[in-house]
Design goal:
The structure is a single chain. This protein has 2 domains: about 50 residues, no CATH class; about 120 residues, no CATH class. It is α+β, with helices and mostly antiparallel strands. Strand 3 and strand 4 form a beta hairpin. Strands 1-4-3-2-5 form a 5-stranded antiparallel beta sheet, with helices on one face. The chain has 5 helices and 5 strands. The chain is elongated and about 90 Å long.
Length: about 190
């Protein structure tokens, strides 16, 4: 419903008089009671926009983390692996700025499989990252990179096509990296 300026002014004058006591007490009380019972509808503006996320950039970060972790845990001998050399070349291309406009595809990096992401629901309140290196069903050496224990930021990276060169099931290649937060004292 559209109101003219004079109608708006009349309503404002009426409510002001009502609140300030220019009307008898019973009329004022009845009107104020009606106002309290009146259902209000607030317009909550909604902002919508389209966003494009290039997951290859996230994959690039996961690849870098997994590669550095593999070198740290396995040692420099890992750098001679054919897959390690491919990863090094890919990361060097990124460092050289070749992916500024568009990040190139790199095989063997993907989001953590759904069956594993479901387990993370129980770890949502854990303030940490988790890195693991192990052998998969095809004897590939893989790293799981779980950032903030968040399923959307959890990745699996193939580090080598032959896990038997580097992986010993009896050795533990996993790290829990606690995220330290500091509260400001007041």
């Amino acid at each position: 419903m559209n109101y003219s300026n004079s109608q708006r002014a009349g309503v404002i004058l009426y409510l002001t008089a009502l609140i300030l006591g220019a009307y008898p007490e019973n009329i004022r009380k009845d009107t104020l009671d009606k106002l309290e019972k009146l259902e209000s509808y607030f317009y909550q503006p909604e902002i919508q926009f389209d966003i494009t996320i290039d997951f290859r950039r996230f994959f690039l970060e996961a690849l870098k983390i997994a590669f550095e972790y593999a070198v740290y845990k396995i040692g420099e001998g890992y750098l001679e692996d054919p897959r390690a050399k491919d990863i090094q070349n890919y990361l060097k291309s990124a460092i050289d700025g070749k992916f500024k406009k568009e990040c190139a595809e790199f095989s063997g990096v993907e989001l953590l499989p759904k069956e594993f992401r479901g387990i993370l629901k129980n770890a949502k309140k854990v303030n940490a990252h988790l890195l693991m290196i192990n052998s998969d069903a095809e004897n590939k050496l893989v790293a799981e990179v779980l950032l903030f224990m968040e399923p959307a930021l959890s990745f699996m990276v193939v580090l080598s096509d032959d896990a038997s060169k580097y992986y010993n099931p009896k050795s533990h290649m996993d790290e829990i990296i606690e995220i330290k937060t500091y509260a400001k004292s007041v």
